Amino acid sequence: MKDMVKISNLNQTFYTKDGELEVLKNINFNLTKGQILTILGPSGSGKSTILNILTDLLKPTSGDVVINGKVGYMFQKDHLLEWRTIMDNITIGLEIQKKKTDESIKRVERLLKTYDLWDFRNMYPKELSGGMRQRVALIRTLAVDPDILLLDEPFSALDYQTRILVSDDVYRIIKNEGKSAILVTHDISEAISMSDKIIVLSRRPAIVKSVHEINLVTEGEKTPLKTRKVPQFQQYFDILWKELDSYEIKQ
Length: 251
Known about the structure:
Blueprint: E1 3-16, E2 19-32, E3 36-40, H1 47-54, E4 62-67, E5 71-74, H2 86-90, H3 92-96, H4 102-114, H5 130-143, E6 148-152, H6 160-176, E7 180-185, H7 188-194, E8 197-201, E9 208-213, H8 224-227, H9 232-243
Parallel strand pairs: 3-7, 3-8, 5-6, 6-7
Antiparallel strand pairs: 1-2, 1-4, 8-9
Helix pairs in contact: 4-5, 5-6, 7-9
């Protein structure tokens, strides 16, 4: 299986007036095509730092980062512009990159129709629920046709029930569109339900404490909600809970 992302011997140290702050130490992992990989770890363990390196916002102190394809970034907040319609919000990346063509607009229209947002295309963000806004944010990220999606705690601003429903939507869209994704979270259940693979980071300076291939079989189409009901789900949860060494980790 083709590696979309391969990180080798990655180290990150920040230099401040108080001295050196070592954040990442000899990090190694890979993301294969079509896979959802979750980075799970305590707050401050460098999860978002890894994403910043992958988006080239930050240069690593040392190590190798190989990315095969275009990267799209979905933030914690939807960052929708309230004065633009849903369609105009979704196409803003195409405008900025000067890629707003007939072909790209057809792709956006297909996404809107496929994922039940077509009827809302002329509405404004304030008219949508929090869950729908996150779906719009994902479609906006997909509009520029990235190969790899980086998701930085994309459900953290939602209430518990909504985040479970939206995670189903996001999972389905990623899988249906054949994208590869890296999800950052500190929610164990979210990580298990969404992922094909989980890497667990230690406290700072973070090392890769363990890697888990998640194999949960459900009846019919696999979704995060269905995986939470599989008996083995609790087994994964118990293992991951023991590995995480921070009281900040949420159940």
